[in-house]
Amino acid sequence: MEVRSESEVHIRSEKVPLQQGQVIQRTRLKVWFIRVCSSILIWTCLVQLIAVWELYHPRLFSGFTGYTKLSLHVEETLPSPLPLLPARNYTNNGFLQVSCNGGLNQMRAAICDMVTVARLLNLTLVVPELDKASFWADPSNFDDIFDVRHFTASLRDEVRIIKRLPKRFSRRYGYQPLVMPPVSWSNEKYYLQQILPLFSKHQVIHFNKTDTRLANNGMPPELQKLRCRVNFQALKFTPEIEALGEKLVHMLQARGPFVALHLRYEMDMLAFSGCTHGCTEEEAEELKRLRYAFPWWKEKEIISEERRSQGLCPLTPEEAALILQALGFEKDIQIYIASGDIYGGERRLAALRAAFPKIVKKEMLLDPGELRQFQNHSSQMAALDFIVSTASNVFVPTYDGNMAKVVEGHRRYLGFRKTIRLDRKRLVQLLDLHQNGTLTWDDFTAAVRQSHEGRMGQPTRRRVIADKPKEEDYFYANPQECLCESARCDDLLGPDNSTEVQ
């Protein structure tokens, strides 16, 4: 029989409570760990649910009862980025490459359309290529203007977007994609019946023109809403552009209310449209030579005065000054010129500056060093004007080009902010009558105001013209499907606001 010393018995008796204490401590750590993990999981789920709700149920029109007065306040803090939604699981039917043509806003609308086409056909979209061969010859790539990471991540539940094609489809390996422009103003049946079957043979299709390739009207509501989601949520400018644009907005707001005047009296527009009203003979000849220099500008011989009488010319700076005065803008209002170089320079701006001395441009507000990285990049400069125009108290475009339309749509989406859509055909008649002495100033101002009472950005339905998509209202100028919940659309866009043409 083993005899243990008194000391050995004492040591063993001490080990028992020590081991029990260690077990209790481990148990407490496990409980604490489980509680922390459970809390993190619950909060993560809650944040995801809130993000999904905010994404599909925007609060833009809660409590909307009519025309909304523009708020002058701009949020100082940026919202936190939304958590990623789960990627969409689908069978990929092929790869879609697109080359966008035109200026910034024409390309922006095209990108929205091409994302929608990729979603409809279950295609993988390659990050779009931007136009580098237009009049402006801007070398900017997609990620020089837009936040490409946000673009791809925010749409991952709808479309798979990649930066470049897989190597097996590279031209270096001898692969030749099918290159084609889709038919303009096409609906989903065209893409499903005529484009989708081509992918089974070619796997990759390159759309080399993308402007106005999707119909304005008659599209399924879910596709229309996706176009809006891309436009209003996924297409964010780069942080550098956003920061400088917001700085411009804050500088202007610190000085009081301001009007963004999109004065499209630029060399390319005048040459393209053939509008030479107010130009010298030398200037008119210069514009004609430029028109002939660009082979894709198909119309060459243009009678300027006929074009102007049809309302197809941008207003001159002198005409814009008279119209703004007639509309009731005071002399001391800030006017932000949202455009490139005005044809004729300061000489042509003299009348406008005399009427409204507080005329400013981004080049006047910012230090040269702040703009240096954006110079010689017209689309990046246009992005700054886009930010300011969207935030302005009033937006007045003198020509209904792509920027005018896309900015108008953004302002509608943000609460029907005041946008004065000038009726140029009516205005040139009134201007000529006033300038030849037939119409007094009081009668002129009364006629101008009366003709624009219903053209201030109020809620209205898009004008639909059967078989004439170029003449009907543009989707991105008035994306009515995205401006209200379906149950309330009839109240917001009732029969009294209809502009449908039979």
Automatic annotation (TrEMBL):
GO cellular component, one term: cytoplasm
Family: Belongs to the glycosyltransferase GT106 family.
Acetylation among keywords: no
GO biological process: fucose metabolic process
Record CDD domains: O-FucT_plant (cd11299)
Annotated protein name in UniProt: O-fucosyltransferase family protein
Pfam families: O-FucT (PF10250)
Segment forming the signal sequence: none
Location of this chain's protein in the cell: Membrane
Keyword Oxidoreductase applies: no
Pathway the protein contributes to: Glycan metabolism
An annotated Gene Ontology molecular function: glycosyltransferase activity
Topology in the lipid bilayer: Single-pass type II membrane protein
Domain of life of the native organism: Eukaryota
Principal location class: membrane
Keywords of the record: Carbohydrate metabolism, Fucose metabolism, Glycoprotein, Glycosyltransferase, Membrane, Signal-anchor, Transferase, Transmembrane, Transmembrane helix
TM region positions: 32-53
